Amino acid sequence: MALRGVWQLQKLIVSYCNWGGSSRGIREFMESQLPAFKEKNPQLEVINELNRGHHPFLKGLYKNKNERVVCVKNMTPEEVHQCATRLRNALGRKVVKLKTRHVTKHPSVQGGRGGDASIGSTIGLKEEEEEVSMVVVVVVVGGCSKATPPYSAAILLIFRYRKRRI
Questions:
Q1: Is the distance from CB of 68 to CB of 10 less than 8 angstroms?
Q2: For the chain, which residues make up each domain, given as ranges?
Q3: Which GO CC annotations does the UniProt entry carry (predicted)?
Q4: Largest CB tally within 10 Å, which of 62, 105, 141, 150?
């Protein structure tokens, strides 16, 4: 893919074995479809590499010094062509695992959804000889309106439940 009008893939290395059965598809691709692929992509340097006794692969070298390797073992010539096209269209960036499911540039002012202040969370459980006491904290957050000051109000309600032992 072109980033600001510049193709990012500089070099495509086609590695294959001349007698292995897993390289049959890539050898057919090199005979039939690779010359047309080279003509359509003159900005791309395509290198054929004989690698005897190993499975075939395509390696893309990008302008940002990254490389991607795709195994094309036992693939048809059409599938190999599709893999080469995907390498050409990629930007060459590393895949980054996201820390959260939702990524935003402007996080919420009110904070994320946490288990500490959620409704119904228990603060403590105190056992006595004759009764069990539990404290439940409920946090109610009010929003801002034109009639209220420009800040949110938080109200803390504490309920105490008692259950007698029978």
A1: no
A2: 2-89, 121-164
A3: mitochondrial large ribosomal subunit
A4: 62
